[in-house]
Each structure stands twice: as C-alpha cells, then as structure tokens.
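Q: I have 442 residues here and want to know how they pack in 3D. Can you give me a structure?
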Amino acid sequence: MAYTFRAAPVDLSQYTLRSIASPKGANTLGARAAYESRKMYKEVPYFLNLPNPIRSLYDKLYFGRVDRYQNGILIKCDTHLLKQVRTEGENVFVLNFVADAFEDLRDHLKRVADHGLINTDSFYYELNPVNGLERMQNRFPVFYKTWNTRLSARINSTTKGKMRVVDFPSYVAALLNYMDSGVIQMPITTTGIVVSNFSTPMIGGLSLELAGVNYSIDKPKVRGYVLDSNFRYFVRAARKYGFYVDRNGPWKLTADVFSTPMLEYMLPYGVTKETFFDTYYNRTYTLDLDNLKRNLKDMYNQFVTDHPRVTIRSSRTVACPSGELIEKKLRRTASAEELEELGEVYWLDLYFKLRAKEAQVGFTQYKQKFSTVVEVYKSLGVESALRYINNEIKPYLYSLKVGKIPLTKASGPIRIGTVSDAPTVVVGAQDMAPGGSGGSSY
C-alpha cells in the first residue's frame, strides 16, 4: 500500500544530537524548560521517511472517542464484538478485527526476525500487549460518587444552602448553581465525560499498549523505542497491517479503521466502512438522557439517605412576632416514576443546560434555542431533540479542547480533580440561571 511520509521540520540546527537522542521533556520541569523540551520533541522528525504516526495529542486527540461527525461514541457492551489478544498473564481485549490484525502483525515480526532479517534482541521482536480496551462504563460510578460527595458538601456548607434543598428539583438547582460557581470543573453527562480529559483513547477498543511506560517522560520514548534497532521496520510493518504507531508513545498501536488492511480484516465479520460505527458503538448523546435520569436519581437519593432532615428557618412575621419560625422536615427519596412525571421538556432543559455548562459555553439566546428544542421534540421525538442539543454544543467543545493539553500526558486514567477546562465561551448575555428556561477524523 502507499505510504504517506512526513517532511522534516525546518531548522533543526538549534538542537544537538545529544538532546535529540535524550529529550528532557517531563511534567516535573519548570514552565520555560517544559516549553522548550516539548517543542523540540514535537519538531524533531523521529519518523522521518516512515509512514505517518498517529499524533494522539493533536489532530487525533479524539480518535476512538468520536465518529466522523464528531459525535461522542462509546463501545457497545456486546461481548461478541471483542476478542482477546494472546498475552503473558494479561486479559487484553480489543475489537475483534483489531485483534486479528495484531496477531498477524506479531506473527510477521517474529517470522522475519527468526529468519535473520531483523534483530531478535529488540523490544519489537515478540510483541506482548499489556493493555487494550478500557471500559468507560466501569468508571462512571466513580464520577457520580465524586459528584455526590462534592455537591453534598457544597449544599451543607451554608445554612441557606441546606434550607433550599428540600426535594429533587431544588437539588438539581443546587447542582446547576455549583457548576456556575466554577469550583468544580468536571463533566456530568455521558458525552461530557467521554470527550473530556477524564477519559482516554483506550476506551475505543482500537489501541494496544505494548508496554506500561509513562507518557509524560520523553527520554524513554527515544532511548528505549525510537532508537531500537527494529523500530523503523516495525513502523512500516505496522502500517502494512493497518496500524498507526503513536508518536507520543512508540509502544502503542492504534488501528486506522478505514485503511485498506483494516477494512479487509472487518469483512469476515460482515462490517464495512459504512456500517463500522453502527456495529461497534453507540452515539453517546443517545445514552445521555436515560443515564442522567438514573444517575441524578441515585445521587439525590444518596444525599437524602445521608442527610434526611432539613431545618427551615424564617424571619419573624405577623404570625410569629417574637422570633424566627423553625420548621423541621424529612427529605423524601425520589422514585423513577416521580422523576418521569417531571416531563421530557424538564429533562431536555436540564440536559441542555448541563451540556452547555460542562462545555463552558454560555448562550445569550438560550430561550430561543430551547424553544427550538421543544419544537423538535414535539415534532420528531426525544432522540431528535437530543441530536439537536448535541449539534449545538459540539462545535464549541471541540474547538476549545483540541491541543489545549500538555504535549505528553499519560493516556491512562486521569484522577478526578486534576484537569482544568478552558475558559467559558460566551455565545451571546448569560441566560441560564438555575430554575429559569436558560442557563477525529477517521
């Protein structure tokens, strides 16, 4: 197959051979040193005259997490779509056709090495993956437990806050207010989580890590992998079987799903370029509302269980001229049926607000936009309304996030609370007060 080669960057004379062979980039460096070292790693043509690597922290930041139309995607739970890769003591799964392609690549490398065409004393001689698909579904409970803990602490931090939350709608109002405060910068919807820095490209089932190396340190990438005697053969062979090698981690392979080799590996499973996304993934916006209803119900009910009593104080009145009125109530848990009775318009309004807030987009014309959502819902149904909301949010989300994270960052799980989002984009004055009607290419 034809290869695409990356041309050498201009003016590499500013770098020494020693610095190129032993880049110093690491997250522990100061701001100036980090900028210079990351800039060098980005510019040096380590893949000169080789097939293009995947640049997972630049133009392919969302590879495996969005479809061709930039909709968030999440792998389906059907186990027959996955296949285990042979490893030494690890349970590593990827999409079925990716596993087939990898097994053929691994056999090819071992075969040519055993025939003396490449070295057997090389990391790339016998490939042994240590990580594959990471189930994002397994992480969601951690998010909502964290949300519940932080929101509960926020509500109980003031007397006024405690008095206001007496039922589910007032709990939701507190949630929206908390998000507006900017204190917590963490997504809450399924789509928001999937396309954020709190997730990882490994959730797509398209990638295999051949080593558990820290992505944030540049020196091992070059010394241990790029300068490996088999590296250049490995990159060419990987491309022959439809894989990209990751420039940010040369121990990581990612399937180029619409390359000719990968399309051929899909055929035995009855999958084509046109059916790929529908076969393996759900669009996250189609999952958002049901997940949101369930998770907010669980959060609220846990809050009620932990804090069942509320004391409501009011100032002296004609009825009680001698002092304040004190009323003690018991908060009630909410059932799924009670929340459904709030109506789809309520939930669509809440969902639109949450998506906008987690993307940090403020719409001045929110009321008009939401009236369109209602019209779409009444004419075409809930899923069409969700699609409309998704299309309204995603242009701002992706244009803000691409390239906004450090050059080298571990692709493993990111601990909640460590990531700051980009500044709010105001698309017109804020009209999103709590309780109001506003508020990858493949």
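Q: Anything worth noting?
A: Residues 1-10, 399-441 have pLDDT under 50 and may be disordered. Residues 140-198+285-427 form one domain.
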